[in-house]
Design a protein that fits this description.
The complex is a heterodimer of chains A (202) and B (231). Chain A has 202 residues and is mostly beta strands. Chain A contains 3 helices and 11 strands; from the N terminus they run βββαββαββββββα. Classes of the chains: A mainly beta (202), B alpha/beta (231). Chains A and B meet through helix 3 of A and strand 3, strand 4, strand 6, helix 5 and strand 11 of B.
Chain lengths: 202, 231
C-alpha cells in the first residue's frame, strides 16, 4: 500500500460495491468527453457495417437495424476519467445479433470499432460477444443525443467507456490486435475498470 | 510521433501559489521524470490512511525544459482531490503522480496552431506558449481565450504578454462589450492549415468547435479537450 498522503482522509467512507477502484459516483450527471468535434448525423444517413474476418460482410441502415430483435442494457458505466454512472438504461441491438448474421471466421479474434469521425477503438472479440455489447440508440427511453454519440453508439459497459465508441459506423473483425485512437495515445488495450487498466502497462 | 508516457512517480511539492481565486498552482519536483510534450497531463493520486485512494488528471502548465512540473488545479467545491490540493497541500508534501499521459492533445512544437481556451482551459496552452518561447517559435501559435472576468483568468499577464486575444463574457474589455467569443474575434488569428486546439468546458468546446468550422477549419484538424465535473 502506498504511503498515505498527509492530511488526506477521503470523502467516501462507505463505498458502493458497484464502484470499481479509483472511481466515484457522478450521480445524475453524464459528463461529455470527446476528442473531436461532435458530428451531426441523421438517422437517414447512418449505417453500420460489419466486415473483416467474416463470411458475409453486411451493412444495415437505420431502418434495417431497427427491425432486428431489440435488446436492452440496464446497469452501470465507468469512464477512465474516474466517474461512474449507476443504473443507466440503453436500448438498441445486441452485437451478437449482428455477428450471427455476418458469421465470424475461425480466425477472428479482435474487433476494431470505427466511428463516422474516424475515431477507432480496439477490443478482443470475446468482449463484444455473449450479451456484453450493444449498438444503442436510446438512453432512458429517449433518442441518444449527438454529444453522447447519437444517433448510434457502441456500448461495452464492462470496459472503460472510451471503448464504447460514439457515432459508430463500422465493426471490423481482425486476426490480430491493433491499437485504436486512445490506445495509440497511451491508453490500455483492454480497459477493464475492475483491474484499473487505464493506461498502457497497467 | 509517439508522445512520451511515464509511470507512477514520487513528487515533492516545491511551490504552492493561489494567484487566481478558487484554484491552486502547484510546482512539483518529480523524481526520475519523463519529460512531457506541451498539452499532456498528469494524474495525481491521494491515499488515505486506510488505503482508500482518489485520483484525478490535471494539465501541465510548465514547458518540458522547466526543472519542475507545474500543475494548475481549479478548486471544485464538491471535489475530493481538488479541495485537498487547494486547501491542504503545502511545500514539502509528497504526492504520487503519474505522467506524462495523453498523445492526442499535444503540440509538436513545429506546426502552426490556433489555441482556443475557455477559462482554466488555458493551462495546456500555457505549456505550449512557454515551449514556443523557449524554442523561439512563438510565431507558430495564435491564442484566443474566453473568460468571465480578467481577474478569473489563470496566467493572465503571461497570456497577454504573448499576444493572446482575451475576450471577457461578464465585463467589457477596452471597446469590446462583454460577450462570448465570436467567429469575428477569431478571424485575425485564423489561417488555413492550422491545427486548432480547443480546451474548456463541454459547452465551451462545442461552441468554439462550431466557430472554427464556420471559419473553415476541417473537423479533422480540430483537437478538443473537455473538462467536466471530475472533482
Amino acid at each position: 500500500m502506498p504511503t498515505p498522503t498527509r492530511g488526506f482522509l477521503g470523502r467516501r467512507r462507505e463505498r458502493d460495491p458497484r464502484l470499481p477502484p479509483g472511481q466515484y459516483d457522478v450521480g445524475a450527471d453524464w459528463p461529455v468527453l470527446t476528442a473531436e468535434p461532435t458530428p451531426r448525423i441523421t438517422p437517414e444517413t447512418w449505417s453500420i457495417t460489419v466486415d473483416g474476418q467474416v463470411e458475409q460482410p453486411t451493412t444495415w441502415s437505420w431502418d434495417e437495424a431497427h427491425r432486428l430483435p431489440p435488446s436492452e442494457y440496464r446497469g452501470d458505466i465507468h469512464c477512465v476519467t474516474t466517474w461512474s454512472k449507476f443504473d443507466t438504461r440503453f436500448s438498441g441491438v445486441s452485437v451478437d445479433t449482428l455477428l450471427d448474421a455476418v458469421r465470424p471466421t475461425a480466425e477472428a479474434q479482435f474487433v476494431m470499432a470505427t466511428s463516422k469521425t474516424g475515431y477507432t477503438t480496439n477490443l478482443p472479440l470475446a468482449d463484444v460477444t455473449g450479451g456484453r455489447a450493444w449498438l444503442v440508440w436510446d438512453f432512458d427511453g429517449r433518442p441518444l443525443t449527438p454529444e453522447h454519440g447519437g444517433p448510434v453508439r457502441l456500448l461495452v459497459p464492462h470496459l472503460y467507456f472510451w471503448k464504447s465508441a460514439k457515432w459508430i459506423s463500422k465493426l471490423t473483425l481482425l486476426r490480430r490486435d491493433q491499437p485504436g485512437f486512445w490506445e495509440q495515445n497511451g491508453y490500455h488495450d483492454r480497459g477493464d475498470p475492475w483491474r484499473q487498466q487505464r493506461y498502457q502497462g497497467d | 510521433m509517439r508522445a512520451p508516457s511515464g509511470g507512477w512517480r514520487t513528487a515533492t511539492v516545491a511551490g504552492v501559489r493561489r494567484p487566481v481565486p478558487r484554484s491552486v498552482q502547484l510546482r512539483l519536483d518529480v523524481a526520475d521524470r519523463v519529460d512531457h510534450l506541451p498539452g499532456q497531463h498528469y494524474v495525481v493520486r491521494l491515499t488515505a490512511p486506510d488505503g482508500y485512494t482518489a485520483q484525478r488528471s490535471y494539465s501541465v502548465a510548465s514547458a518540458p525544459g522547466d526543472p519542475l512540473v507545474e500543475l494548475f488545479v481549479e478548486r471544485l467545491d464538491d471535489g475530493e482531490v481538488s479541495t485537498h490540493l487547494a486547501d491542504v497541500v503545502e511545500p514539502g508534501d509528497v504526492l504520487e503522480v503519474r505522467g506524462p499521459i495523453g498523445g492526442w492533445f499535444v503540440w509538436d512544437t513545429e506546426s502552426p496552431a490556433l489555441l482556443v481556451a475557455g477559462g482554466s482551459g488555458v493551462v495546456p496552452f500555457v505549456s505550449m506558449l512557454r515551449t514556443a518561447r523557449a524554442l523561439g517559435r512563438t510565431d507558430r501559435l495564435r491564442t484566443a481565450v474566453s473568460v468571465r472576468t480578467l481577474e478569473l483568468l489563470p496566467y493572465a499577464d503571461e497570456l497577454l504578454d504573448a499576444g493572446a486575444l482575451v475576450v471577457t463574457t461578464r465585463e467589457p474589455r477596452g471597446i469590446r462589450p462583454a460577450g462570448r467569443l465570436t467567429a469575428v474575434d477569431l478571424v485575425p488569428l485564423w489561417e488555413p492549415g492550422q491545427t486548432a486546439y480547443v480546451c474548456g468546458s463541454a459547452a465551451f468546446a462545442g461552441a468554439a468547435t462550431r466557430l472554427l468550422e464556420t471559419l473553415g477549419t476541417p473537423a479533422a484538424d480540430i483537437r478538443v479537450e473537455q473538462f467536466g465535473p471530475s472533482g
